[in-house]
Design goal:
With about 170 residues, the protein is of the alpha+beta class. The chain folds into two domains: about 100 residues, Hypothetical protein ph0010, domain 1 (Glycoprotein, Type 4 Pilin); about 60 residues, Dna Ligase, domain 1, CATH 3.30.1490. It is about 25% helix and about 25% strand. The chain has four helices and eight strands. A hairpin with a 2-residue loop joins strand 5 and strand 6. The longest helix is centred in the first third of the chain and has 16 residues. It is globular, with a radius of gyration of 16 Å.
Length: about 170
């Protein structure tokens, strides 16, 4: 099977982590497109049935380039997502991976949102909830905000901030 370059990076990072138990360096085959710029990204792991198996990401870049960001988040999605037990090495071949590279978030209002086009961040103080765009079962702005607010532990009636972002999604 042929994967997009970001998914190849993520799959390579998880596989090498299982082999060597250390985060790997950026492989020589990674193109300039992913080594010459910085961005936040999310790596999502799904079982063959489609259910979420792990998802970890960064809203803002924390690494020197996108490739490193993918490597760190891929390994974290596989072994550090607190919602799931760590992925076992023999599961990796049966997982579907996707990588979302994020634009910088921009302040928004409810009327600026579109759950198919934009992800959303809600925040109030230290509480923050993030939801990627174009997720199955999330069809309305109300659903999108409700899920993000629940993740953040923010009540719908509280005076929270809304930000939106777009993604480049790779499968």
């Amino acid at each position: 099977m042929s994967y997009s370059e970001p998914v190849r990076i993520a799959r390579f990072a998880i596989g090498e982590y299982f082999r060597r138990h250390v985060a790997v360096e950026v492989p020589a085959w990674v193109s300039d497109e992913f080594t010459s710029r910085r961005a936040g990204c999310f790596v999502s792991l799904h079982s063959l049935g489609g259910s979420l198996r792990g998802c970890i990401g960064t809203i803002y870049p924390t690494e020197e380039n996108i490739a490193r960001e993918i490597i760190q988040n891929a390994v974290s999605a596989a072994i550090r997502d607190p919602r799931f037990p760590p992925v076992k090495p023999d599961e990796l071949l049966d997982l579907e991976l996707s990588v979302d590279i994020l634009s910088l978030p921009e302040k928004a209002t409810v009327s600026d949102l579109d759950p198919k086009k934009f992800g959303v961040i809600v925040s109030l103080g230290y509480r923050k909830g993030v939801l990627l765009p174009d997720l199955e079962g999330v069809n309305t702005v109300h659903q999108q905000l409700e899920i993000a607010l629940k993740k953040a532990g923010i009540g719908e009636s509280e005076n929270y901030n809304i930000f939106r972002f777009s993604v480049e999604r790779y499968r």
